[in-house]
């Protein structure tokens, strides 16, 4: 069985359900919309700052403030792409058609990842330019050092969040269970642990805390992270790879 | 040709399938019969490599299912009509299956036409009735024009017209030389479609026989007698060397003696008969007897209604 056939099949699957359209649309709207609002508010705040404080403002990262919400839509996208196979029972039909489970899973994740990246790339650039427009005189330029990397990194971050979610859904084989675990982690636990001094040393290795570093252009004043933008991103890649690998092992060894 | 050899499946302590060995041959409909929970679906899932056997193996035309190139072109299966994404249209559901096995997209329209779903091809399948879902599942099984077809309880929930359609479909597929393997928990259904029977109970093979042999061996014919002078009738029959069985509701049953002979015997002794009727035990009863020791979920009857099973209950 040619892998091209399976990729073709997974492309048909992903584009023929509504959840694909609405989750990815949500990811775009949340990220751009919230980024724009926070950039508008930040402009006022920045204008009250003194020269020393202004050294540490990061207009690029500010415009990506909506990522925290947009990533939740990306998580739902990733969870549903895989999890719906299990919740609907489609998995048995799919595996009867493609009994080589590795080919099935990696084709599915591959197609979903490409689609997520395409949407995330558009989202990231729109987010940046809309956010910078709202920031007025504090805005960064796409040509400034590190900015293009951050904008591109923003797209990679959103994509990897989806990949991580796909891996977790393959392990747990249930969309409700996957969302019930991923949502609190990314919406509550990671931000709380990251916000408290005592737990930050551990929290900084969580996928989102490490991954967001890639969107940073200006290093904050009290930064303690032992990794740079790509180092943080590397940690996130490791998380996503681990989740997908575990998912593959579960799929390979369990009854469908 | 499907070959099952020493197939076993254990779930924790429970042996769901226990050392099954049988073959499913082309050109006929093979019925796979057993009570609920006998291990039919588990066996069929193992045939498609969805569940991994604890022991033994299944070979499809001599190969493992996983090693088949484009398996839908070898084996078409309807295991669960609900095993699809309800948000996807019937057409797209079949299209993604076709693409995964290199089957031309034009084939999707053909099978939709075969099962009569062309009018709702673009509709999302979550709105389908059970019968329509079943038809869509069958369309998926036919998609790759396979030589082997497997249906798990295909008539469940169908209306009479749908049942009739599926029976004819299975027969015509077998007549084309294909291997047709169909499970059911209803003997009466199998009697109408299957040429060969594989019967299992609690995961074990109970019978592997042609339908004709099964009927010959298992269908019991007898004569039922009812008389107000039951004791005298008993004695008369006994003296004539005829074995009598007392069944429920004060009736007598006689095996292997023609009703004419019994009537004449009664007349000779001037006995009044209220009933003299030849009976044919149904295949359903034969099947129930065969699997009686291996039914997974027994309904326990109340002691007071112990005679409620009629003619077969009295052979004591």
From TrEMBL, chain A:
Keywords for this protein: Membrane, Transmembrane, Transmembrane helix
Full protein name: ABC transporter
Pfam families attached to this UniProt entry: ABC2_membrane_4 (PF12730)
Annotated transmembrane regions: 21-41, 61-82, 103-130, 150-172, 179-196, 230-251
Species this chain originates from: Streptomyces finlayi
PANTHER family recorded: INTEGRAL MEMBRANE PROTEIN-RELATED (PTHR37305), MEMBRANE PROTEIN (PTHR37305:SF1)
Highest taxon in the source lineage: Bacteria
Automatic annotation (TrEMBL), chain B:
ABC transporter domain span: 2-227
Keywords for the protein's UniProt record, in alphabetical order: ATP-binding, Nucleotide-binding, Transport
Family note: Belongs to the ABC transporter superfamily.
Residues spanning the signal sequence: none
Superkingdom field: Bacteria
Molecular function GO terms recorded: ATP binding; ATP hydrolysis activity
Protein name as catalogued: ABC transporter ATP-binding protein
Keyword Transport appears in the UniProt entry: yes
Pfam families for this protein: ABC_tran (PF00005)
InterPro entries: AAA+_ATPase, ABC_transporter-like_ATP-bd, P-loop_NTPase
Protein's organism: Streptomyces finlayi
